[in-house]
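Re: weekly structure request thread

Next one in the queue (495 aa):
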Amino acid sequence: MRALGLLILGVLSLTLPVSVVYSASVLPLKRAFPLDQPVELDELIARDGVRHRRLLRGVVGGVVDFSVQGSSDPYLIGLYYTKVKLGTPPREFNVQIDTGSDILWVTCSSCNNCPQSSGLGLKLSFFDSASSSTARPVPCSDTACSPAIQTSATQCSPNNLCSYSFHYGDDSGTSGYYVNDVLFFDAVLGQSLVANSSALVVFGCSTYQSGDLTKTDKALDGIFGFGHGDLSVISQLSSRGITPRVFSHCLKGDGSGGGTLVLGEILEPGIVYSPLVPSQPHYNLNLQSISVNGQFLPIDPSVFATSTNRGTIIDSGTTLAYLVEQAYDPFVSAITAAVSTSVTPTISKGNQCYLVSNSINDVFPSISLNFAAGASMVLKPEEYLIQLGFDDGAALWCIGFQKAQGPGAMLTILGDLVLKDKIFVYDLARQRIGWTNYDCSLAVNVSITSGKDEFVNAGQLSMSTSPRDMLFKVLQLSFMALLIHLIAFMEIQFL
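Done, posted below.
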């Protein structure tokens, strides 16, 4: 087996440039909720409130976060999901993308009380380890089950399986066991070149769900956590040199939604970066000030300081955006003052709204969120307003930012309202997050790497081009993909 492996590696060295060692992996994103399904603002706030109580529990490592409920209106990003293929033969699962949790988990076929259908029009899939020839339950002795990686919720079952059980304050929860099996993905290997690839990963198999997770109206097959814990897929793949320690996404905010997620770095000249706050369980940034039409708001910077249950979090699992009270009040006042002569301010169900007869881009000011290292995030009106209908022929637009309340009253959380229509790069190797405005219906440039956290060239990924079509362009890539699968097969056989 060793001789054959050396032979394969030797052939690879002859057929491919030696600089390409890593590959960027690509996952297309879809919007979970139709655009013709408007929802009340208070429903979105309630859904976000449930999520934020989970974030505040302070559990790190193998925390499983459940944001299976969510909504969107015609002008607001909802939840996003992608398809992943697991097992041999591969089976497709629709999983929500969530930067606020760590692990990938899907529903097990042995789950008795899990949803059997989904109101989203998706056929639910169930993972059956017995039907996958490559599935291996993770034993208690595995390093993935060690206290250094997991939390107190991890336990050893009577049959020596590494299991987990999570219960949350909103009475939802899940339990199951960890599985080691093959994850299939598209690997970007060069200029417009995409090849099918695979790798062994540890993920959760849910055998029990409770609370809102049992509801069928918005059910998905699981969650794809993109936190920076040791058991996140990005950490697993990057630690073995399969992908770089960086991932990126671009979420479409109009039309049918969707977008792309890359296990690698999207390159764009306008990207600005701000350092991550170290030693935090979530993606925390140092927000320093807010300006409206270039004028800084009278906000004490200390209200944004990071400490326990304080600071600013980037979270794709949150639908709206939330500001601490000390920032929210001057924020709303400044916007209202800037538009008071052009619109009719009104209050709708406790929210600051405006009756607008013209285009909001002609009336409302630009907002700048100013972060450490001089990185500013400029928000267009549609990135801080949401439309809730019409009144006497005028459009009713409301402030999409909400006042942080309850246990999370000192947390500023930037959700999909802000993240849409931008490239976001989570550079874990350099401990920073970058962003820039972008039309996410266009192709993106994806870096190709030659060594850990070293970026050498880029390949263009078009979301409108089929990976299969691109494979046929280069026979060499098909040959490489066959060799990669052969190596993976040998690795599994000798486990």
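The first helix runs from residue 2 to 15. The helical segments are 2-15, 41-55, 233-239, 325-339, 360-363, 416-419, 467-473, 475-493.
Next request, please.
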